[in-house]
Each structure stands twice: as structure tokens, then as C-alpha cells.
Specification:
This protein is of the alpha+beta class.
Length: 131
């Protein structure tokens, strides 16, 4: 697999379109950090890291609105790709939907949202936009 982060985002996107309650994804450290951010910002209901004999699994319980049954995540967009990396300096960290969405960045201080990167005064690789 050439782009595991794109695979992670696509699995979540496909599970939401199919109205699944839970999605299971092969684990890695960056995927675990991205899952924690999605949970902290309220885009997923819960998550669980499971250890198997290989690399482990991430089980994510997806979140839907109670009345309209619409998914909590409207869009998951991969920004930096293996063929074309996108970096943002501290002064050019992107804002998603004027602050309503989040951008997930991989910085020298770890994986964080755009707001956290601005407060920490760091830039980095823009992994994805979520809203």
C-alpha cells in the first residue's frame, strides 16, 4: 500500500456512506493519533485500539445525528499525497471553513489540529481536512 492515510480516510468515508456503526482499520501510530483527534473534536463516537499478532487494529464507532441520521463527518479530504507533499509554515497554517472544520497536521511536536499548531507556533505537513 502506497498511502495508508488515504486508505484510513477512505475506509471511514465508505463506512459512513454505507451507514455502518463500526469500522475496523489496520493500526499505525499516525492513524492512532488521527483517531484520537477525531474523537476529541467530536467527529466519532468512540474508538478502541486492539492488539493482534500483527500490527493491531483500530475499531471506530461512527457518529450520526439522532434525528436526521446524517453522518457527523460531512467531508474527509486528503491534502498531502505521496506524489505531492503539502507543507504549511507557522504563518500559513490553513483554516477549514473559517474555523468550523479542522485540518490535521503532522508537525515536529506530533500530530495536531490547525488550532493547536497555531498556538504552539509550529508548521508541518497538512494531512487532511475534516468537516
Amino acid at each position: 500500500m502506497t498511502d495508508p492515510i488515504a486508505d484510513y480516510l477512505t475506509r471511514i468515508r465508505n463506512a459512513m456512506m454505507a451507514k455502518h456503526k463500526v469500522v475496523v482499520i489496520p493500526a499505525s501510530n499516525i492513524k492512532k493519533e488521527m483517531t484520537k483527534i477525531l474523537f476529541d473534536k467530536g467527529y466519532v463516537l468512540s474508538y478502541k485500539f486492539e492488539d493482534d499478532s500483527k500490527q493491531g487494529l483500530i475499531k471506530i464507532a461512527l457518529k450520526y445525528h439522532p434525528i436526521s441520521k446524517a453522518p457527523a463527518i460531512k467531508s474527509l479530504t486528503r491534502i498531502s499525497k505521496p506524489g505531492l507533499r503539502k507543507y504549511a509554515g507557522v504563518d500559513s497554517v490553513p483554516r477549514v471553513l473559517n474555523g468550523l472544520g479542522i485540518a490535521i497536521l503532522s508537525t515536529s511536536k506530533g500530530v495536531m489540529t490547525d488550532k493547536e499548531a497555531r498556538s504552539e507556533l509550529v508548521g508541518g505537513e497538512v494531512l487532511c481536512y475534516v468537516y
